[in-house]
Predict the 3D structure of the following.
Amino acid sequence: MSQAFRNGDGGRIDRGKRVGFTFDGQTYEGYAGDTLASALLANGVRLVGRSFKYHRPRGIVGSGAEEPNALIQLGVGAHTEPNTRATQIALFEGLIAESQNAWPGVGFDVGAINNLVSKVIPSGFYYKTFMWPAAAWMFYEKFIRSAAGLGKAPTEPDPETYEKRSVWCDVLVVGGGPAGLAAARAAGASGARVILADEGSEFGGSLLSSRDRIEGREGADWAGDVIDDLAGMAEVRVLARTTVASYHDHNYLVAVERLNDHLPLGERQGPRQRLWKIRARQVVLATGAIERPLVFAENDRPGVMLAGAVRTYVNRYGARPGNRAVVFTNNDSAYRAAVDASDGGIAVAAIVDCRPNPEGALIRLARERGIEIVSGSVISGVRGAKQVSEVEVAALNEAGDDVVGARRSFDCDLVMMSGGWNPTVHLYSQSGGKLAWNAELATFVPATAAQKSREAGAVNGSFSLADALAEGTRAGAAAARDAGFEVEGEEVPACEAAPGDGVLALMPLWDAPSGRKGAKRFLDFQNDVTASDVALAHRENYSSVEHFKRYTTTGMGTDQGKTSNVNGLAIMAGLRGVDVPEVGHTTFRPFYTAVTVGALAGINSGPELLDPVRKTPMHNWHETHGARFEDVGQWKRPYCYLRPGETVKQAVDREVLAARTSVAILDASTLGKIDIQGPDALELINRVYTNNFATLKVGQCRYGLMLKDDGMVFDDGVTARIGENRYLMSTTTGGAPNVLNWLEEWLQCEWRDLQAYCTSVTTHWAAIAIAGPNSRRLLAELTPVDLSNDAFPFMSWQDGEIAGIPGRIFRISFSGETGFEVQVPASYALALWRALMTAGEKYSITPYGTEAMHVLRAEKGFIIAGQDTDGTTTPFDLGMGWIVSKKKGDFLGKRGLERPDTLRDDRKQLVGLLTEDPNEVIPEGAHISPSPHSAKPVPMEGWVTSSYYSPNCGRSIAMALLRRGNERIGETVALPLEDKVVRAKITKPVFFDEEGERLRG
Amino acid sequence: MKKGSVCVAESYLRQSPLAQRALDTRVADDTSAAGLVLSERRFLAQINLCGRIDSAAVKAAVGVELPTKPNTVTEGNNIAALWLGPAEWLLVGPSDAEKAIYDALVEGLDGKSAGIVDVTEGRTVIRVAGPMARDVLSMGCPLDLHPRVFGAGRCAQSFIVRSTVILHQVDDAPVYDIYVERSQSDYLFHWFETSGAPYGVAIAEEPATNAWRRPPRRKKDDEA
């Protein structure tokens, strides 16, 4: 079968370029310019998929984004993409497509049994199993998940690349039909920055499917000329194959440009898709309209199509979706499709019109072609399993709610239906625009825009070409003007359209009677929702719009109900006996059509580009010396340095012991550092820390604790007085930006009178902590500074040269050992690190990572803000009441500490835990209960915040926040774990050198 | 540094934030075919200045007028002054000038309420040029960089992907200097190379800078 349904001429395909493709394993040929859908139809393929729930045979219904049935698994292997619409897939050589939701094949599908048992899985089936009983869902889920289907995601990583761009413009025009083209031309001529985007491969929209003429040319040629004009305007960007998928606040819209999807795999270069993040001063929505199906008995048979889609296939692609058609309509537009189909070689057996007496120019055109018009009638049945073979037509009774009289049959292989047109208001509605019901058109149209946007053409319900061109020109010009540009003249292009263009004269027919019980009348093809399902929802009182949608799943498929929603609302309105607007409509949500995750991610995926990776100046040294890294915020910090053959625990133990027995160094460059200057620097510091800094002399350092207003510990660190009015504050690694923001918030909003200036110097200074009994000896070799205890006491600092590098030496320690911290300009830090490693060789100097640092500080009971605190912990809870000044006037959090809740005596307090089994390391986060035999519900009295094996103590140690912990020292508690219960004794949270002799030594 | 402590480290000990990328070994002979041309401007002197600054005193001390118009850059005496906020500027000078510029500012603004901080080591500068420079920046930066909006002599604090940066458009070519925190510079450079890959990326030689000289000090009598 070689394109037996292709006309010899006509259409916008290139008959000189044959394109081979595969569908369901069968090879076919189409032409360049085809979509997969048009090529399949030209080849006589009618059955393209199975429906979601009943697995009924389905064929192509539409010709664009609205397509509910022809969902395609496109491509194979890593390139495969599910749920693509055959109607929007540009044909290319070697394209491989598979139908979906059918096993073993679309012709014979095991799941079709669901169609026979549909009575036991009625509408609301999923809804009810979700709701009750909860346990039943566990049982059903497996079955439902395997039967539920549609396409399959690829299992391999995506081999494609994607690009994202931000772009700003004065006027964004969405839609490249007559209205959009006119708008873009009018706006572009003003010199405004204009973007014109259209989802199709060719601009022209409806012009590509019609035979109308504009400015003396074929509409499609006119469109091409306008695009050429626009291409010549420097500030106009024309984006084909670009779907504007969402419309957010502040005229922010997101579009996806498909750069490569229309090309054979071998010809693709560069990114597959480009995501445009568009900020538009003004928006013109010229998004057109989507034809509405009619709801009638067996209207889902392959071969039942939208009338306008058939017109598109005939006019644009020279493809006949059938050879003998019956048209079923409630409005004039289908006559136009019938006339074009007839002229395109499809025998139109009859036009079945529910209106009793249709009249007008288009009707006359049909009559002139000898087409029989069966008025006041409906299609009451469709026969043909895998393709339409015959329809049955019956007259409506006077009330229009049932059929009467004898049935007539018409042989046909195609049914062209039209229930009217729905403006494509998706983006408009996403923008926050309000919709109004237009009774004449029987649909929702834009009413009140919420943002700087205008609508032009069919999206407004203006269906004639003349109106589209006029509205488009006006909207484009006005948008440019509102964006601040001068517009000269607003000439509306002259057009010659078919008589009766744009006239609908519609009579609503929401649910065509058939006189037959049990005949399925489909409303939502993709989700298999029938008119009876709506009735069931109504009977069970799921009649509000949000309930009805979820109960029946109307509009919840991948097509988001583009063809089904209004019909569903109207049927529900009829059942409730109210007008459609009273039922309302559900919210239109992004995206208009599905957007690949790859396009949203762009290149920001994988370990290197997902999120910024922050590295210290010594990073590469760490890397080449066995460092196992951990993420601390965005920083990469060495967790430990593995020697060949070592386990992580062995490495950590070795590093911890080295710090207590000889000398060890830590890359502490990630700690936050804030330079604070100004006459009020001291005042600022005194207000943000709990303790008093007024007594701190130049050359001294002091540890400080910072609280939020509620009295809860927020951050901690050492602050050094650098000069008369200058301090260097250090913060935790993760807390650095938060602390700076906190200081700035107070300075800029509350304490405007303070003259204090904060500047982050976190990455200006690199820092190395040197810990251990040999630290002084080592450092002394590299610096002329006198490091003796008298000359350089604990908690002081000095300027000095270290290994030939000017820097600062701080006598501070987080390990509880004799120690120093050396800070040098970051670009010299690696040199310093190397110098320390070389000079320290004789002491077996050991670089240590964050885990050893954690163990060392835990041995001493030093807290880590954010690990041993969680935003509900006060200094008193930590046993650090000594750091809360009673003399100071005020500080942030002072009043918070006086709240009744913070004064309770049964608060959780920091304690130490020693397990009965010294080798048992409790997992951090483990809950504490009073006894292993506590009755259910087991009381939760606290949790473990830090827990390690301490090689210096020769046993495990842990810190925990425990209710009334302070008064329970000596008690034993139970920690229920997944597979056992661990018992531990409560102690003070200090495990090593309680007197701090080493620290000051 | 305390005044009088004269210690200058040997320059071979110094390593730029992007040193591991060995850019000098990758410099292209001809960058004209590349869509994106990248280089690192290493060790530029950077002094952050904030507070109620007397602009005339700054001019007298270091030879550049501070910009008052938001997000603009003034240049003078081989220093670029970038407007960062209503009372915050970044003075950028040639490499190795940071101490001299800092000292001149401290002296010139003596006794004034100001924050003067040497932040030279905190950031590096990635110079971004080539015909695709603006497009590649738009892949990560949300700002409108169209010439009608953001031209030569403009600066802004913004993001490129998830990195905080300062952008400075140097000329109309356009050429941009992107100031990025040193810890994130490797990530951002990698991002530039990846984003620009479809359009061709070349590494250029580091642009030369002219030395900064302290303006002649006016005698007290002249001021009167």
